[in-house]
Fold this sequence. Notes:
- The protein has 115 residues and is mainly alpha-helical.
- It folds into two domains: 61 residues, no CATH class; 44 residues, Arc Repressor Mutant, subunit A.
- Helices cover 65% and strands 0% of the residues.
- It is built from six helices and no strands.
Amino acid sequence: MEDWQMFDRTRLEEIADEEEAIFKAILADPARFASIEKIMNDSDFQLLEDDSIIDEKAVMQQQGFPAWNRTEYMAFVRSSSMFGRTQLDRIQIAIGSSKTLADVTVFASNFWGKR
């Protein structure tokens, strides 16, 4: 989770801290650990029990830009500086074929909207 991916980092870290506390409590109780050890590797296993927090986390993980890497971000910043923030077609060309004009448009809207 990098800054340029524009996740709600503070809230996701709060949720991760809560998950870590739950996990530590499970490890401290051998009987509880034994009862869930078999299901911990299931893809749908959740440490959190509150469905609203599980849903919140899932939504927040989709709101960022996980598909953007550092190279693309740096190309976005450089080309925005070079061409101006409204020249999205030129910015997209500078980033390369890994991002479409639609990708750049959505990213730029979020990037400049947070400034």
